Amino acid sequence: MISSHRCIQGYVTSLGEQLAGLLASVATIDTYPFFVYLLDGIVNFAIPSGGGEFAVIGPSVIEAVRNIAVGASPEEMTTITSRASMSIAYGESLTNLLQPFYLLLVLPVMGAGIKIQAKGVMGYLVVPFMLYFIIQSLMVIFVPL
User: Fold this and answer.
1) Contact 99/48 with Cβ under 8 angstroms?
2) Are residues 86 and 145 in contact, defined by beta-carbon separation less than 8 angstroms?
3) Which of 70, 78, 89, 94 is the most buried (most CB within 10 A)?
4) How would you label 8-34 residue by residue, b for 16+ Cβ within 10 Å and e otherwise?
5) Is the pLDDT of residue 144 over 90?
6) 63 with 41: CB under 8 angstroms?
7) Domain boundaries, the chain
8) CB–CB of 48/113 below 8 Å?
9) Cα–Cα distance between 139 and 143 in angstroms, integer?
């Protein structure tokens, strides 16, 4: 059982490294926060958890961002790493609106006695998704830490 876990973990790690390599080949020092934001939003569909995807792609993304910022001072590297980490968190929170894993806990408790399902809630989350995408994209790109 341990060997199968290692195999799966190795596969996920190599996927994270491949995605980070793609990030490093496309992004620049000015655009990496937005690309990290989009990357984690996409990964969150495959790993719908409260921060679990950071364990999968976080180290690879941080390493890719450090490769993008070669030659930066230690203070700048701290800022760059912080912006990448926050971009991962923003991307994860954004796509939770389109794949609300939390509804599995909320609907049975809040919807007791009525016939409500996740598909009845999903349509109402599209407008906040678009609004948050615009706001968070601007924050990730233009607001420094």
Assistant:
1) yes
2) yes
3) 94
4) eeeebeeebbebbeebbeebeeeebbb
5) no
6) no
7) 2-142
8) no
9) 5
Spatial separation of the C-alpha atoms in residues 45 and 47, rounded to whole Å: 6
DSSP for 73-106? -HHHHHHHHHHHHHHHHHHHHHHTTTS-TTHHHH
pLDDT in tens, 67-108: 888 888 989 999 989 999 888 888 888 888 887 776 777 777
- What pLDDT shows up at residue 67? 85
Which tokens hold the place of 79?
Answer: 């800022």
Residue in the block written with tokens 């690879």: 60
What tokens appear for 75 in the block?
């203070």
